[in-house]
Amino acid sequence: QVHVVESGGGLVQAGGSLRVSCVASGSIGYGYFMGWFRQAPGKDREFVATITWGLGKTYYADSLKGRLTISKDNGKNTVYLQMNNLKSEDTAIYYCAAGRRSALGMDLTDSRYYDYWGQGTQVTVSS
């Protein structure tokens, strides 16, 4: 069983930066991936970024590329999401999630492949 807990959300001005973190407890290793989704008020949850635990391969939502960096610290079982040049439309609850690769060709942007979810951390960007 894997548990993930987010931290680091808060209030930031437009144009500013913020880093959110996600710590995983349990057996995280090769074959796992951890990522971030977000849900803004009145909108569906959407994929933000993810990283594979073994090789550190990263995937980003096309609309967010260039402003985000996802990284990991294997020793701390932690994944980070660095967000720069934040905009008001980035305001959302950011959820950390983890999953395990069970087949080739899995679309890691699809939330259905993530089995373990955190409670979320609120990010509010003021304009």
Describe the structure.
- It contains no helices and eleven strands.
- It has strands spanning 3-7, 10-13, 18-25, 32-39, 46-52, 58-60, 68-73, 78-83, 92-100, 116-117, 121-126.
- A hairpin with a 4-residue loop joins strand 7 (68-73) and strand 8.
General form? globular
**Unreliable stretches:** none
Number of beta-strand segments: 11
**Mean pLDDT score:** 95
Q: Structural class of the secondary structure composition?
A: mainly beta
Give the topology, please:
Elements: E1 3-7, E2 10-13, E3 18-25, E4 32-39, E5 46-52, E6 58-60, E7 68-73, E8 78-83, E9 92-100, E10 116-117, E11 121-126
Parallel strand pairs: 2-11
Antiparallel strand pairs: 1-3, 3-8, 4-5, 4-9, 5-6, 7-8, 9-10, 9-11
